[in-house]
Amino acid sequence: MLRNLAQPQGAARVDGGDSLRGAGAEKNDERRWLRVARCASGVQTGQGRHRQRPGASTPTITPRPAERGCQRARRMSPEEIRSHVLAVIASIAPEADLRQLRSDRPLREQIDLDSIDWLNVVAAVCERFAVDIPEADYAGLTTLDAIVAYLAACQARGARAHGAATLPTVHHAIGGKRVTVRPLRAADTALEAEFVRHLSTEARYKRFMVTVRDLPESKLRYLTDVDQVRHVALGATIEQDGREVLVGAVRYVVDASGRACEFAIAVDDAWQGTGLAGILMKALIDVARARGLATMEGSVLATNTRMLKFMRQLGFRLEHDPEDRSTVRVVRAL
Fold this sequence. Notes:
The protein is an alpha+beta fold. Residues about 1-75 have low confidence and may be disordered. The protein is built from 9 helices and 10 strands. It folds into 2 domains: about 1-160, Orthogonal Bundle (Non-ribosomal Peptide Synthetase Peptidyl Carrier Protein, Chain A), CATH 1.10.1200.10; about 165-334, 3-Layer(aba) Sandwich (Aminopeptidase), CATH 3.40.630.30.
């Protein structure tokens, strides 16, 4: 397993040519090899060579799940990730002056880390962030920036999978048709594009405040490729002529405070007045409340009297902005 390891640029070999091997080092090498073997097989020690003392007891080893890929952990900002990675490096190489570290240059060109130390860095990162980094990804983790970006992406994938898994798929009977309300996903861009295209010009303007018939690909991705954590999106679909058709969508995006969110909703013209909008909004409110959000807000065109009435029925209060009379802010405590 270790002989096939993809080394970071400039890494020393970890087989018989490892730079650590030498006269009187056999026992130390044996201990290091045991530690590396444990790390590579998914068991972490979280200790570096610089922290071991002669006669010290064997570090506690914590077994971790054997499956590969990213696992869910507390979501951190890139700055927090960077701080934790630097703490890991400092624990493995305490003599290094990390203040002089350039984040865009290979770490091993700036810090004295041999191949065993580097494996211990990766192992400690795995343990601290509760992720499992496949060997095939090691070669890309040469710089601090690369490690931070990798872990941020890993967290996003884990949060995305967890967020979608906690949202149920619910079936409703409306007007004799079976309507499925489910989380939207990245594969739904074609459904979203057809849905927007099928809206009337008025409905499209009320939702997107534009009259274009086709949304750009970037906007479609934004509407569908969501993490279902900070950006939650639900779609209502029916089966029509043997294919799935989107007839309504609702979403919210959490603000920077993490306590409030802004919602948006759109329903196909043929389905307005059927109760579908109420079903979608209730589902969205239930998700936001269950996840601990305190407030839901939105902006409605002042001329959209039907929507404003609907908001009042849902318990939203209307706040008129004296500086922008074209829209009305609607706010609801959760």
